[in-house]
Amino acid sequence: MPAGTGCSTGLGRALAEAVLAHGHNAVVTARNPATLEDVASDFPDTALALPLDVTDRNQISSVVQQAQARFRGVDVLVNNAGYGYRSAVEEADDADIRQLFDTNVFGAVDMIKAVLPDMRANRSGTILNISSIGARISPAGSGFYSATKAALEGMSGSLQKELQPLGINATVVEPGAFRTDFAGRSLTQSATPIADYSETAGKRRKENDTMHGTQPGDPAKAAEAILAVVGSGNPPSLLVLGEDAFDAFGSVAQRQRTELDQWRDLSLSTGIED
Fold first, then answer.
1. Mean pLDDT, residues 71-76
2. Which residues are catalytic?
3. Contact 246, 240 (CB under 8 A)
4. Phi and psi (nearest 5°) for 76?
């Protein structure tokens, strides 16, 4: 039975609908469960809609307990809850940064810790951590958002190595731009921009962003791709979604390889000589 966080809109909602349409049970969560009423009402026997703020450990425990009572546990966890934040690094408010990490990183960590005891006992399970191509390309103006996703990916890489011998898989999903409200309702930014960053971070501020509503990715197709990975029997440690993300990933990898080779001699010059 899958359990998903952040299911009210966008990719999380598309995935919840696809899971249920394929006949699976699902616990679907959002901070405001009223946004999930239509999903739950369409699948009264297989959908359980619950309130969840991933920064609230008591709510996390309650969701996992209710999942166990209704569906005998969680065999697939989708960590999708999160939001965007745009700001030059210098501009960002300390409280904003900490809230961003509490949601995008530590919320996912707490969800993972809550479901792993049962997964280990069953020697099976799948954890899907929804990241972003932003972790790879680190755009100006998205330093802290990219940092949360990079932290999530670093943790997931170690998690996969720890869990695979136990029959459990952990996969990072890196989407590109999908036609969701991520660049609208789910995007926040620093309160006071600094003029010196107007040509870098400033271009990504919401008032200057023209991407919302024109993103190339289809959330329904992304949901089907994620389901295919879960059902594959051998999920990858990293799944990139979208042509834009695939191309950007390749460009970054090539640039890093070029730079690595360019500085090879200096990198290798630091060993102790016998």
1. 94
2. 131, 145, 149
3. yes
4. -135, 120
Question: Of 56, 58, 63, nearest to 3 (Cα)?
Answer: 63
Q: How far apart are CA 227 and CA 23, in angstroms?
A: 12
Q: Which two tokens stand for residue 140?
A: 């100006």
* Helices 143-163, 94-101: crossing angle, 10 deg rounding: 30
Reported residue count of the chain is: 274
44, 18, 82, 43: which is closest to 226 by C-alpha? 18
Query: What would the DSSP string read from start to end of 182-248?
Result: TTTTTEEE-SS--GGGTTTGGGGSGGG---TT--SB-HHHHHHHHHHHHTTSS--SEEEESHHHHHH
Mean pLDDT (the chain) is 93
The pTM of the full predicted model, rounded to 2 decimals, is 0.92
Sign of the alpha-carbon dihedral angle for 113, 169, 6, 28: negative
Residue-wise pLDDT tens digits, 214-260: 787 899 999 999 999 999 988 999 999 999 999 999 999 999 999 99
pLDDT at residue 265 tops 90:
yes
Question: H or E stretch including 247?
Answer: helix 243-262
CATH level 3 topology of 2-243:
Rossmann fold (3.40.50)
Question: pLDDT band for position 7 (50/70/90)?
Answer: confident
